[in-house]
Amino acid sequence: MRLLVVSNRLPIVTVEEEGRLTFQESAGGLVSGISAYLDSLRGSAFAKPEYRWIGWPGITIEDPAQQALTAEGLSALNAHPVFLSERSMDQFYHGFCNKTIWPLFHYFSSYAVYEENLYAHYQCVNRIFCEAVTRIMQPDDLIWIHDYHLMLLPKLLREARPSAQIGFFLHIPFPDFEMFRLLPMAWRSEILQGILGADLVGFHTYDYAQYFLRCVLRILGHEHRMGRILLPNHLVKVDTFPMGIDFRKFSEAAADLQVRGTEDGAWEAIKGFKVVLSVDRLDYSKGILNRLQGYELFLESEPQWHGKVVLVLVVVPSRVGVDRYQAIKKEIDELVGKINGKFSTVAWTPVQYQYRYLPFHPLVSLYAASHVALITPLRDGMNLVAKEYLASRTDKTGVLVLSETTGASKELTEAVTINPNNTREIADALKTALEMPEGEQIRRNEAMQDRLRCYDVVRWAEDFLTQVPVVKAEQARLHARLLGRAARQQILDRFSRAEHRTIFLDYDGTLVAFANDPLAARPTEELLAVLRDLSRDPGNDVVLISGRDKDTMRRWFGDLDVALVAEHGAWIRPRNGSWQLAKPLNDSWKPAARPILQTYADRLPGAFIEEKQYSIVWHYRRADPELACARVKEMTDDLMNFTANMDVQILPGNKVVEVRCGGINKGAAAMAFIPKGRSDFILAVGDDLTDEDLFQALPATACSIRVGIENSHAQFNLRNHVEVLELLKSIILDHVPAAGEEGT
Ligand code: GDG
User: Fold this and answer.
1) Where are the alpha helices (DSSP H) in 150-233?
2) Chain center to CA of 252
3) What pLDDT is stored for residue 488 in this prediction?
4) In the chain, what are the domain boundaries?
């Protein structure tokens, strides 16, 4: 099995120098994390060479000969380039990714733009990635797709290779429903469906996973059970995997520095000061201005710290050339100038500002030299700098000041947490941090270091990647129940060998799809023709067995030569017979139960009640799914208390709750149609809980099919009503004489 890592950028940047192409390693949280994991693979299930990294090579190359050379050079490094034109990169990366998704997912909704053209490029680049992946993928490969640039890719790949093993991980926050819904309707549905093409979807925090699941429910209407979403053809698992760091690499490098000292004396200037550290990519989400304001307020309020503390502010150039980033850069420059202008002395510059990328060792020595790490993003998916700082504190001292709006704050609970919007909180936290007794620093850091050491980046990746086959196995178990070709042929054979057959068919969800209004789910001409054809053979007893009321059943199917069962078995109309009550029933409970159901319908916009002779149904298909869920619980509770001494059943169904007389169910009703010895083949098809009674009541020789990929007492599953119709049609083709041929 190979691992294919797919991300917007390759971990290797292709650089053109004097007409020659060279390849340099690029850094960043994702890259360094996954590289550490890949390095750990030696001797494991994926041997070291058994991976490929697919992504943009960091340069636009239009010339096919140059592209071939680049691909060749990169292939030696297990990398596979996806070439994009300058325009695509601009509209896709700088455009939709960073002008729409990035601001919106970081709650900067006022910065987000919604341009059709940018989205079209996003779709197009995702398709280009899909082609690149499908070109090299092999049947056994595990494909791990990363981040917000490629949210449409899982579904595109799923369509191209239905059985592929696909994982998707989002590195940035997934926003709550109100924020996500700001995306135009078509885009937001497509993005959710795109992600759901994966088998496993991972987020840094439980909150992001819950926000995603809520968006899936509210926008696509799919519910989940413990993070598992059962789509018509596919099971997806959504879970939390907080990304770790390469703990050993940082702690060993820091320990090494302590022994050897910094070779280049890079941080000589800050020796003797209490050092407050700030390292980020230049981004408005990182709250760099907020921390400068907090530091300024701290210096104003705590003059005793003048001359004793320095803030080392490292800002790493990012998305250079984008207006909004230029603007923050200017604001940072100005604020640094203002603070230094206001407080500096000949011997002391309170902010040491560096706008550059630091190589690894100077970065670690800065972590090691800093007494406080001041990390104040306004929003951050995780924030690895906070974790790296802690890993580099070999003597366990140092204080982490961390904003509560980072994913990392969910794990690093011993940090001093702040709300980045409150300058006073930042200033106070700085004072607390600088004056914290060493014993307390150590106590806090020990707990956090233990956690980071244990759940490092390798564990994170392993955890994610071992879950994908587990989801696959679960899918396989569900799919094993799907009616396959051999079992289908067996049904056809048994059908033709039998002299007398009984066919039980549920209606809603089995022969037709659900509609918002129950009366809109009328039988189509095609369905009526199938039922007519099926019942033409005198050896076939077709029984339509439904929860519908008997008048609707009569209106829709009264003319057919089939038996009807209404209200889940309360009413039975044999073939050529008239309606009979299955057993004496009592509806005296209805006047008392009706107001409860009506009150709950009034309290839930979109809900309504439908009254049948021996049951009342509370429908909520059109209602807000979350409010409905709460109301269903409350109402069921109320009804159970109220009906404790009555012979009624409360039955949860597909977006309905049904209250009906006790002792009635489809299983009991079905028995009336299978007198001993008459039927030598029984087929039953249904889609919900009420059909389970039927499946359980039938003799073991019967063939039962549940519609939808669900666990069931039925022997097989079919995906949907379309497949049921196909099965019925093939039975007709095989066995039922054409009209006018009876008896020939
Ligand atoms: C995204 C999400 C999520 C930074 N400056 C230098 C440098 N770095 C390295 C750090 C760290 C990484 O870059 C930055 O990671 P972050 O997590 O802080 O942030 P993003 O780049 O925005 O990453 C984020 C992350 O993905 C992972 O899922 O945590 O929330 O936004 O590793 O060390 N490295 C060196 N010199 C620098 O100057 N050598």
Assistant:
1) 153-160, 177-180, 185-195, 206-215
2) 36
3) 92
4) 3-83+127-240, 247-454, 485-583+664-735, 590-661
Q: Enumerate the β-bridge partners of residue 275.
A: 310
Q: What is the dihedral of CA 415, 421, 423, 425, to 10 degrees?
A: -40
First CA to last CA across the chain, in angstroms? 59
Structure tokens at 514: 């659900």
55, 149, 244 from 164: Cα distances, Å? 19, 20, 27
Q: Is the CB of 378 under 6 A from ligand 1?
A: no
Give the position, in ligand 1's atom list, of the atom nearest the Cα of 204.
28
Task: Please tell me the distance from the alpha carbon of residue 178 to that of residue 101, in angstroms, as a whole number.
Answer: 14
CATH topology of domain 247-454: Rossmann fold (3.40.50)
Residue 417 near residue 448 (C-beta atoms within 8 A):
no
Select from 32, 286, 354, 385 the residue to mutate for testing ligand 1; criterion: most ligand atoms less than 8 Å from CB. Answer: 385
Report how far Cα 554 is from the mean position of its chain's Cα atoms.
44
- φ, ψ dihedrals at 196, nearest 5°: -70, -5
pLDDT tens-digit readout, 364-377: 999 999 999 999 99
Residues with Cβ < 8 Å from 236, sequence gap 6 or more? 196, 198, 199, 200, 201, 228, 229, 471
Give the whole-angstrom CA distance, residue 670 versus residue 694: 7
Architecture of domain 590-661: 2-Layer Sandwich (3.30)
Alpha helix ranges (H) inside 40-137: 64-75, 86-89, 102-105, 116-136
Residue whose CA lies nearest to ligand 1 atom number 30: 381
Angle between helix axes 116-136 and 153-160 (nearest 10 degrees) is 40
- Contact criterion met (CB below 8 Å) for 224 and 430: no
Q: Look at the domain 3-83+127-240 and name its fold.
A: Rossmann fold (3.40.50)
The CA-CA-CA angle for residues 678, 679, 683, to 5°, reads 165
3-83+127-240 and 247-454: same fold? Answer: yes
What does R_g of the chain's alpha carbons equal in angstroms? 33
Whether residue 279 has its Cβ less than 6 Å from ligand 1: yes
Token output for 601? 């319908």
Tell me what pLDDT residue 66 has: 86
Segment 713-732, tens digit of pLDDT: 999 999 899 999 999 999 98
264 has pLDDT over 70: no
The rounded distance, in Å, linking the Cα atoms of 183 and 61 is: 33
| Spatial separation of the C-alpha atoms in residues 155 and 135, rounded to whole Å | 16
Which residue's entry shows tokens 């299978």?
Answer: 674
**Half-sphere exposure of residue 317, counting CA atoms within 13 Å on the CB side?**
6
| Domain 485-583+664-735 -> CATH class | alpha beta
Q: Where are the beta strands (DSSP E) in 464-539?
A: 501-505
For 531, how many CA atoms within 13 A lie in the half-sphere containing its CB? 24
DSSP run (H or E) holding 240? strand 234-240
At 399, the amino acid letter reads V
Does ligand 1 have an atom closer than 6 angstroms to the CB of 385?
yes
Active site residue 506: yes
Ligand 1 within 6 A of CB of 360: yes
Structure token digits, residue 101 = 């998704």
What CA–CA distance (Å, rounded) separates 79 from 68? 13
- Average pLDDT for 115-143: 96
Tokens, residue 254: 């820091």
